[in-house]
Predict the structure of Alcohol dehydrogenase.
Amino acid sequence: MKITAAVAHDFGKPVKIEEVDLDEPKNDEVRVKLVATGMCHADILATQFQMTPLPAVLGHEGAGIVEQVGPGVTNLQVGDHVILTVASCGECDQCLSGHPAECRRVNELNFGGNYADGTKRLHQGDQELGNYFGQSSFATYAIVNKRSAVKVDPELDLKWYGPLGCGLNTGAGAILNVFKPNVGDSVAVFGTGAVGLAAIMAAKMRNVQQIIAVDIHDNRLELAKSLGATTVVNSRDLKSADEIADAVKQVTNGYGAKYTLDTTAVSMVSLAAVKSLDIMGTAGLVGATQELKMNFTADMLADNRRLMAITQGDSVPQLFLPQLIEAHKKGQFPFEKLVKFYSLADINQAMAESLDGSVIKPIITIDENA
């Protein structure tokens, strides 16, 4: 069928809104009519670096309505409202033990450009287009595996909920699924973009005593306070990881935080997250930090600290996303305060405004009438 999609042809070039051919769903797949798709930083990075083969259709925070069901699909039917999330095989030891984000085929299925059977579903004439995160949802329609579509209440206004499939899931899951802080604990979150603010909202849901937001923008720190941060640190003029860590320790009685979460992927800030820990504290990194150099004895061993990577909030989306939706309904997870909507035609503007920091969470509206 003919669809409209935002096609990334070359690295460093704007994406183009073009007509694309979409194949029929195969075994275990469904076709989804997209209502809206959140924009994650990983979508922007994929237009700049070799994260996935181009040309491709990007987008991986889709929400829409099932229009066609392929063979073998029993958990979904035509008309179901769904949020799309990352691809996983469902068969390996990691998937079967409740860690689909650590699926042994996760890089292949999300960044390799193909579906699980090694083929593609998107074409322009003789040119095949790569798939992204198992969905390619910057388009009017997408083919996804049944595991990647989380059924939700049809009464929900779908245009808001795509970001739960990746960014918000990542931040909230790091707190609720991995750290699981207690009431008397302290949590420091470095970076107050969508992922960091989701973590702050989740920490408030856990009634954490001290929630520290660290960023270089006063307006974002003010937003963080409105969403649950009890303390803010502007690190704009701090020149080293030690200076940032000292600032965090100053607001934690000199001890440091029990948990720290770096969402920036900036090496200096990632190191600061480690150095900001209390004795036996745990630091989590959720961004694509590159080199991270430290003195293991001084920064880790001496205080028995822990450092871990966290992907996709270590969540099972079919279980966790409904929990976040319920929290949103109760006003405990007000992520709508982060959002600005754009049309598909304005997707390059959305990318630019996300990059310059003027917008926290862009959402691309695909079906204006939904």
The longest helix spans residues 167-179. The first strand starts at residue 2 and ends at 8. The radius of gyration is 20 Å.
